[in-house]
Every structure is written in structure tokens, then in C-alpha cells.
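Expect chain and fold; see below:
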Amino acid sequence: MRDNQPKHRQSRKQQRKLARRSASRQCMPAVLIVCEGNETEPNYIRGLCEANRVNTAAVELRRGDGATDPVSLVRRARQIFEHDPSFDRVFVVCDGDGNIEEARKLTVQRLRCKGRPPVTIELVLSRPSIEFWLLLHFEYSSRSYPTAADAIDDLKGFLPTYEKADRRIFEQVAHGLQRAIDNAARLKRDLSATGSISPDTDMALLAGMLLSMRQDDSDR
């Protein structure tokens, strides 16, 4: 029996491209988001988009497929773009450990596409982990978290049943999204004043960009 899976994948890929072009005509950027985590980050981002009527046709969400450090994830994002250069913005969502400086050097090497402005990969880091961003949905914190487990312990003070595989994770914290954005901005100011780099998160920037892609009722 002939295997039609490659054709099916190619068809889905073409459908996504057409959907992004349609969104582009509505002045929506085509966005690629590559996540380190296979569960928490994709589930959170997907939930945010669904709850806020973000035009998901313009958002391509990919897992790292084995890439777990910032350098490998940036390389993975470059690889995806080279095979499909239809994206206007490219984000890599990962923990703020590993060789961050080397990853930043790679992001400086712009992605080029004929007839369009070059694209720069944008790092979205969370120190020590994505759980710190989730914690900011409930409270402001600038205290030290040596490990991700420490941040998870504080998060469980608000979400006792928290699990990384929770597909409804955004629903669990949605009420505090604006609080998290405000807390992250306050933290950036505090870090700038003290010269510290941790804890920290760039997720507010990604969340704000996605919220700017909400569809009006007239577009539905």
C-alpha cells in the first residue's frame, strides 16, 4: 500500500502558507514560534491565542524536536525559516540557561528572503524557567530561584495541582495575564536598577505581540 503521508504533510504545509497570506492581507504578521518545551510553553501559547481570538492562521507553533538549549533552538528556527521563508517574525521561547551569548550571536545573523526585509530571530527567555512567568500571573517576585524546581514550588502555592503537561494551563492563569505583563515590566525596571539578570522573563513581549493580533468580531 502506498504511503501518502508525505503528500498529506505537504498539503497541510501549503494550506498553512495560504492561511498566512490571507492573514497578511489583514495586516497581520506571519509569526513562527519555536519552543524549547514540548508541553508547557506550547500549551500556554495555544491557550492564550484561543482565549483571545488571536488569528492563529498567522501563528506557526513548533516544538524544538530534540533541541533543548538556546543555541540549538536558534539553529532549529533558522532551519525552519530556510525551508519556509514566509514568516515576518521568528521567536525562540526557552529557559535562560545554557549558552545565551552564543545564541544571541546567532540571532544577529539575519534571515534573508528574496523581495522582503530580512528577519531577526527574537529570543524569549525566562529565568529560571517558564514557571516563573506563570508565577507572575499571581504575584510580583524578584527573589532568587536557583532552579526551575524552586519556581515551581512557589507556583504550586497558587496552583497546587500544576503539571507541565496540563493542556489547560493558560485557562488556569488567564485571569492574571495583565498582572503578569505589568509585573514583568516592573521586574525589568528593578533589574535595570540593580544590575541583576535573574529572575527574569521576556514572555510579556511575546504575549503583547500575540494580543495585538486579536481578530475583531467583523473578521470572524
User: Anything to note?
Assistant: The radius of gyration is 18 Å. The longest strand covers residues 89-95. The chain is about 45% helix and 15% strand.
